[in-house]
Design goal:
- Helix 1 runs antiparallel to helix 2 and helix 9 runs antiparallel to helix 10.
- The longest helix has about 30 residues.
- By secondary structure, the chain is an all-alpha fold.
- Helices cover about 80% and strands about 0% of the residues.
- Among the domains are: about 100 residues, Tetratricopeptide repeat domain (Serine Threonine Protein Phosphatase 5, Tetratricopeptide repeat, Alpha Horseshoe); about 90 residues, Tetratricopeptide repeat domain (Serine Threonine Protein Phosphatase 5, Tetratricopeptide repeat).
- It is built from 19 helices and no strands.
Length: about 350
Amino acid sequence: MRRALLLALLCASLASAQPAEKLMERASALYGAGRFLQASVLYAKAEARGGEPLACSFNRGNALFQANRIPEAAAAYRRAVRASGGSFSPALFNLGATLYRLGAYAEAVAVYRRALALDPSNVPAWLYLSEACSRAGDLVGALRAAERASRLDDDPSVVYRLAEIHVALGDVSAAIAAAEEGWRAHPEEPDFLVYVGDLARGDGRFDRAIDAYREALGALGDRPDVMYKLADVLAESGNVFLAMDQLSAILAVDSADAEAAIFLGNLALDARWYDRAERAYLAAARRNHPEAVYGFRELAREALLRRRTDEAKRLLETALRHYPGDAATAAELRRLEEESP
């Protein structure tokens, strides 16, 4: 009798376990097919039919997270954490991610710290902790987490994160030093030099920015975006003619760069290099840049100040050929024609 009872209990256990296992298989197939909500439902059913709570809850949290059901995902991960007694670090990491997405930054920090106590070699988690600390207003904690990540891995993303925190703390020198160290460690990543230039320029260290951009161009070749940065900082530092040469170099590399043509025209106009400004505005007008018409009108006004009415008319006529619908230019030309003898 007792043996028959044991056999009956065993059969009942197998009967209940088998459906849970099949439900888990079906749920995993749905997850793999991108049907995340359906998968989450089956994971919940699998647990209700005797499936292992940690696996069911963790997988359900993943499915809900993928479906962008973040509050529900957080609840599922919490259940997985409880089911593991707080010893399953992936559940803690994923719970931290959902809390971050929900804006619960202080709690996310606490959860990430619990997870990292279990898995202190997880570099991405140190970076996530750093970001969560920043959002929670703890920049010192963010720096320490990023420094811990950098000791484990000198990946460029870690270096950038460390530099960004130094900037947030107001220590641009430390940020520049971190980026320079990143360049020395990763000579295959010349964008570190561009970042050094950006940091130095933002801090008013124009000479350092110019050197960094020039060094970057030496490694990257004639990359227009970096050439433009160099031209910009040259102009900002008062090296106008060098800036104009750099913009001309950009146009030699990419003749369709209308922004560089406008920038060159404006600098040349301010430097009273009128023929160069006209050529630049003409290049921009041929590419239909809307600001070129204003450049022609400014050149015409400068010509009038120098008592060169015919030149002013010619400039306005040139503008109208490219912008025939510009009423202000047409009106200015009419006024000149009416006032001319």
